[in-house]
């Protein structure tokens, strides 16, 4: 195997200047003479989604090139671009081919954008013996970040032995390490640059811990949801990708649910004051998200047609896009309004005050035991009452209560880790309940959309027939979910009843 070893340089970055490099390599003379190659500068932007989907999937995508179109690189694939990219960009904006196919599943509907932009200065240095023959080659590389923050370069020197000169290369490495300026190190990669920039960021900043005062624990969790709301506003307003709005809505729902479940432990009338405002925020975001979901599924729905053709649904698709444009304008106005900014500012200030001066008379442990017992029994009672003949309203009510229980289990999991089994079965039940509601809701909305098209004179006979075929598909989904519900309820009750009984003793 070829001899390769990487060293770290403790001294100041040299920027590849010859005099500085020769000074750093002084311990190698007079045995070896360095011959410096050309100074090269390499720039790269490491791309990922807002929620790090590529990194979580073990994929490293870069855009390389300081000017001009540059190239996209995902080893072993490389694609030269014909024009400079505009970030953020969704998957369909990338050139088709193997590289795009390799990341498409991981990226999904999210947009890609630079997480880190780096600049690396490199010089190849050939070490020659007294007869002018190459004994080893050094790669001096200084990698620093330009975005999101400027960080000093991490300097690495890679020693590679020339053929048949392994012993000489080992001497070079030992000699450099014997001084004070070099140390063993790993090569600089994406992870090292992320660490230098403090990314992906703090985890567990808003986590609750056993023994916390109950009001401080609830306020801490709510602060985490507030952070999620505000961090997704910009992406929602700029329409970067539909998941920003989805994540914002989830944070709003979690806020409303926790206020309902445990808001009474907050001082004064804090929960009563703010709950209606978050209900308004939920209502503001609903129409655009509903249309997003419809449009995200639209191609698959069109391809599912048997009697009709996908092009028959073109007027319907255009109608949905117009509706979304109108609803998005309302949403953006609401998120840009001072009313929303004041809401989040006063909400975070109030919660921070609770965390700073908590009431220590009760702990989150006591709160968790009491509230989870109460909510679990309520969900069990509703679940046990559901039969194949139960009206849709009862199924929807169970879905809402199940969602409250799920959010509570997730928030209080650090205090009650033993409930993970119940949470897992609850998520499965929610999937079935969600499929049932989606089938019914989509059927109802599809009828309304058809009427809107008719009223506007935009619906042809083929379009209405194709929409009717979609309606039949939604009805089948609803029936399938209803049939699956009985088994899902039985599994959930078998898993959850023992936990509820044990916590009640």
Automatic annotation (TrEMBL):
SMART domains: CHAD. It comes from the Bacteria. Residues 210-497 form the CHAD domain. It holds the Pfam family CHAD. PANTHER family: CHAD DOMAIN-CONTAINING PROTEIN, SLR1444 PROTEIN. This is CHAD domain-containing protein.
